[in-house]
Amino acid sequence: MYRGFELTDSGIKQMNPDEAVEFFRKLLWAEASETDVIQSSAHVPTEINRSDGGLDAKIEDADPSREDIIPAGDSGFQIKSSNLEPKECKEEVRSNSGSGLKSRVNDLLYNGGTYVLVIFEELSGLAPRNDKDMLERRKEALEEEFASQGYPDADIRIYDSSKIVGFVNRFPALVAKYKGIEHVVDHSTWHREAIKDIEEFFSDTKRDKQIEKIQNILRDSNEHCPVIRVTGPPDIGKTRLVYEALSEEGLQERVIYGTAREFKCSGVASRLRMDPDWSAILVIDDCDSKDHDYFRQQFSGEADRLALITISADPTSTGDVHSVSVEQLKKNKVKELIESLEFKVDEQPDFDRIAELADGFPSFAVMIARNAAEADEQLDNLLELGDETLINKL
């Protein structure tokens, strides 16, 4: 047992219905990514209060490398934050009229799919006044209901809270999100640092291709831990580019982020090497060439349960097959970025002049624009100064 790196039953039992669905939704995406279930196969709506036809999530025609969470073929998941008694399990799959099954449940079983009931309560042990296991009683109730509706051989699974946390504890990113792991953060917590107060991402053709390259490498890792080296001058937008590349569902749920120093201080690195069940995309920032070589040596021999991305301003070649060099952002995109900012002044800065001064560095453009807007001097006078004088003033 690795103390401090596990989510427990108590950490999920108090979730409300929305939180439970969102929690399990992230687990499904993480598992789909880990087990090579293609993105288009999974459908987990973000709004759970709409009519769901008896299912909160659907995965179609899956061929996972393991079937612990996602069964092969079609599967449908009904997610409940509180316990259902056997009678309630039957009622849950019946149509509102009481005659027949709910539409999506019926379609699922008709096509030979697996019905999965997810309950955020502990169901192990014997039921009161009954010698049968609580989980088995609920499964038997569903078997009876499905048989009475013409599906005597329906495939049924039930996941209770103990199974759920067992699944989640394979993904340190989810543990970091819902419990916290010292020195590293998950993708959503990384958000504030990555965006640096610029919510909208401004890209150009080259950056779009680099984002696509990173995503393709991670999705086609060829059974080995992929190693990606991202370099470029300070404040050019390296961290933001990697953040955006990992923002897609199926990737973000496996991301843990930290600096090289933080990773070395945490126990995460050793756990990742020692625990074959742990799966993650490691993003290590401020990682110079020596640190990169260290982490590459630690992880490159692992299977594709892991992926390693290091970010640095250090231009030293590391000889990696997968490398991304981030360069200046196109001037027209820098101008769009500046124009998107809000200025608390009546007179707007000279956007073209600022884009020229920024020279393709997004954060520098924002600094110039905001400082120029807040300067005591008139904006036109300030931006008409020579480059060196202006930079000294800023």
Mean pLDDT: 87
Uncertain segments are 47-51
**Tell me about the biggest sheet?**
6 strands, mixed
Overall tally of domains: 3
Shape descriptor reads elongated
Query: Biggest sheet: strands side by side, in what order?
Result: 6-8-9-10-7-11
Total count of strands: 11
Contiguous helical run count: 17
Classify the secondary structure makeup into a structural class. Answer: alpha/beta
Radius of gyration: 26 Å
From N to C, what is the helix and strand string?
Answer: HEEEHHEHEHHEHHEHEHHEHEEHHHHH
Distance between the termini: 54 Å
Portion in strands? 5-15%
Query: What proportion of the residues is helical, as a percent range?
Result: 40-55%
3D structure, described in words:
The chain folds into three domains: 9-168, no CATH class; 172-325, 3-Layer(aba) Sandwich (Rossmann fold); 331-393. The N and C termini lie far apart (54 Å). The chain has 394 residues and is α/β, with parallel strands linked by helices. The protein has 17 helices and eleven strands. The protein is elongated, with a radius of gyration of 26 Å. α8 (205-219) packs across α9 and α13 (331-339) crosses α14. The strands form two sheets. It has a six-stranded mixed beta sheet, with helices on both faces. A five-stranded mixed beta sheet has the order 1-2-3-4-5, sandwiched between helices. The protein is 41% helix and 14% strand.
Give a topology summary:
Blueprint: H1 17-34, E1 42-43, E2 57-62, E3 73-80, H2 86-93, H3 103-110, E4 114-119, H4 134-148, E5 155-159, H5 161-168, H6 172-178, E6 185-186, H7 187-195, H8 205-219, E7 227-231, H9 238-245, E8 255-259, H10 260-265, H11 268-274, E9 280-285, H12 289-299, E10 306-312, E11 322-325, H13 331-339, H14 351-358, H15 362-374, H16 379-383, H17 387-393
Parallel strand pairs: 3-4, 4-5, 7-10, 7-11, 8-9, 9-10
Antiparallel strand pairs: 1-2, 2-3, 6-8
Helix pairs in contact: 2-4, 8-9, 13-14, 14-15
